[in-house]
Amino acid sequence: MSNEKLSDNERMKSESHLLRGTITEDLKDKTTGGFTNDNFQLIRFHGMYQQDDRDIRAERSKEKLEPLHTVMLRIRLPGGIITPEQWLGMDTFASSHTQYGSMRVTNRQTLQLHGVLKHDIQPVHRLLHSLGLDSRATAGDVNRNVLCTSNPVESSLHEEAYEWAKKISEHLLPRTHAYAEVWLGKQKLDLQQESEPILGSSYLPRKFKIAVVIPPQNDVDVHANDLSFVAIEEAGRLVGFNVLVGGGLAMTHGDQSTYPRLASDFGFITLEETLDVAAAVVSVQRDWGNRSNRRNARTKYTVDRVGVDTYRSEVQKRAKMTFAPVRPYHFTARGDRIGWTKGVDGKHHLTLYIPSGRILDVPHYPVKTGMAKIAEVHQGDFRLTPNQNVIIAGVAEQDKSMIDNLAHQYHLINDAMTSQRKSSMACVSFPTCPLAMAEAERVLPDISAYVDKLLAKHGISDRSFVFRVTGCPNGCGRAMLAEVGLVGRAIGRYDFYIGGNVEGTRIPRLVTSNQSTEVIMNELDGYLARWAVEAESHESFGDFSVRVGIVKPVLNATIDFYNVVD
Ligand code: SRM
Ligand code: SF4
């Protein structure tokens, strides 16, 4: 790599004694609710972020009080599968020991607990351990929670694909014993006995994300991931994967060296090659990724800097294999099928739409209590989806009416919810996200209600489009793969993008920058009016906006995201 000065995060990782730092000392320090120096960053590798409530930050500062430091804890849940017992354990902890009393289903198929005070951190890790869970590597410069297409009805491949998601997650986990020592009080190991054969002792240059997807569903949004495995079947059996490398959605306002990027096809691999290829793609990024500038450190920039062919050749060399030509596949959808479906296994599955994945009782919608009641009697498991919803999976015929009654009793089934609302997603944003520039989760209900009105006004309430709001250009809400996306700029102000597609294979283009939602909704109103009368049969809004020239499509974001290239 270049001779540029390494970023301070590199010093922090290399001096951390394989992620231990002085976290244990900080835990004993009662003078602050936070973590000091490097530990602030190091706890991320153990699945936690230090946060404070931004709604009360100014007030506390006026009173000369330290911000109310807490941590957000994100568990590791490959493929998003969690048992009712695990759910109940987390749910009880959330009620009694967190600032907000809620859990949050994330769009990477896991649960976050916001507002855990310092003295509750070790207890929560011990609780997780007793439930067979952990939060290792769900944040930090490592491979994160591995996604897997969640709807069990889709095909008989799900079970096999899920097993691969689990294996990949385990294979790429940090090998350090630090998590067990710091949080579970396990005996200290001699550092000499430990090594990180895949990740290296300075870990990766930046976060790394992996998804396993089962076409035609693209619920995991493969193009948001550094590495994706597309399941390929023959006669109903999984025979291998197409590999995609270098997807990612984040950018920084005003810095055109940052941009969203679709992943590149590398080719087909057999099942036996999967773990070696995963490790090789990770190790090339480990060795070639930018460790000087964290803004340009994700795999997508490494792929663009060295070129797809060079990156692919190096993976082949390291994994001692050759990619076969890409096998044909196509995506048709990304949303969850809300409601009951019968799986190929004869079991029933109920997908519940959970607004922004927030598990909290609110007036007329006691989702937290309802989910807990179901967990008390459910014999199958729960599957968290990349759309922030929950599937009550594996319900036997004789239990179906009991689960259905509970879901109705607690208003978890809402037939009045529009399909537009179900196609909408927002990131967490305020009050917990320290990087938030504009509201997202909290503003989505109002914006969605307005969009519903617009659709009704134009007589097209039966249509919908993929709509996403994200509180800043980091893009957690995946607006950069939406048909219509809002990206936060400042309080109440957003950049307005259109032109992505339903399948999630096209990046939308900026149409209006730094505007209020009123101005953006007015503009959208005009476009929807045209869509209502000019659309070809079943033409999606994103495709329509490109066909009629409202926006020029983004063909290769690396070169034409900021400027249209004719
Ligand atoms: Fe994210 C940082 C929430 C999915 C790109 N993301 C954050 C942090 C941790 C803020 C921070 O660094 O202090 C947010 C915590 C908010 C809170 O209070 O909970 C946060 N991200 C989320 C979640 C919870 C959004 C949600 O509403 O579901 C998702 C958690 C996923 C998980 O379970 O692991 C989440 N984040 C994403 C996605 C979407 C995805 O992966 O499919 C992206 C865009 C895809 C990508 O990575 O390119 C995303 N998050 C980021 C980035 C920009 C990364 C980059 O390449 O520059 C940051 C900031 C950073 O890393 O510096 C970030
Ligand atoms: Fe926070 Fe920005 Fe991610 Fe939203 S997109 S959760 S505001 S970092």
Task: Explain what you see.
- With 566 residues, this protein is of the alpha+beta class.
- It is built from 18 helices and 22 strands.
- The protein has helices spanning 8-14, 23-28, 39-45, 57-62, 84-97, 121-130, 157-171, 178-184, 274-288, 299-306, 308-319, 367-377, 400-409, 419-422, 444-457, 517-534, 541-547, 557-560, and strands at residues 48-51, 70-74, 81-82, 103-105, 111-116, 147-148, 210-213, 227-234, 237-245, 264-270, 339-342, 348-352, 358-359, 361-362, 365-366, 381-384, 390-395, 424-426, 467-470, 484-490, 493-498, 509-516.
- The strands form 5 sheets. A 5-stranded antiparallel sheet has the order 1-2-5-4-13.
- β4 and β5 (111-116) form a beta hairpin.
- The mean pLDDT is 96.
- The structure holds siroheme and iron/sulfur cluster.
- Siroheme (SRM) binds at residues 49, 72, 74, 106-108, 110, 112, 114, 138, 144-145, 207, 209, 221, 224, 248-250, 298, 388, 427-428, 432-435, 474-476, 478.
Topology of this structure?
Layout: H1 8-14, H2 23-28, H3 39-45, E1 48-51, H4 57-62, E2 70-74, E3 81-82, H5 84-97, E4 103-105, E5 111-116, H6 121-130, E6 147-148, H7 157-171, H8 178-184, E7 210-213, E8 227-234, E9 237-245, E10 264-270, H9 274-288, H10 299-306, H11 308-319, E11 339-342, E12 348-352, E13 358-359, E14 361-362, E15 365-366, H12 367-377, E16 381-384, E17 390-395, H13 400-409, H14 419-422, E18 424-426, H15 444-457, E19 467-470, E20 484-490, E21 493-498, E22 509-516, H16 517-534, H17 541-547, H18 557-560
Parallel strand pairs: 6-7, 7-8, 18-19, 19-20
Antiparallel strand pairs: 1-2, 2-5, 3-16, 4-5, 4-13, 8-9, 9-10, 11-12, 12-17, 14-15, 16-17, 20-21, 21-22
The site of siroheme has 31 residues, from strand 2 and strand 5.
Keywords: 4Fe-4S, Amino-acid biosynthesis, Cysteine biosynthesis, Heme, Iron, Iron-sulfur, Metal-binding, NADP, Oxidoreductase
Binding site for [4Fe-4S] cluster: 427, 433, 472, 476
Cofactor: siroheme; [4Fe-4S] cluster
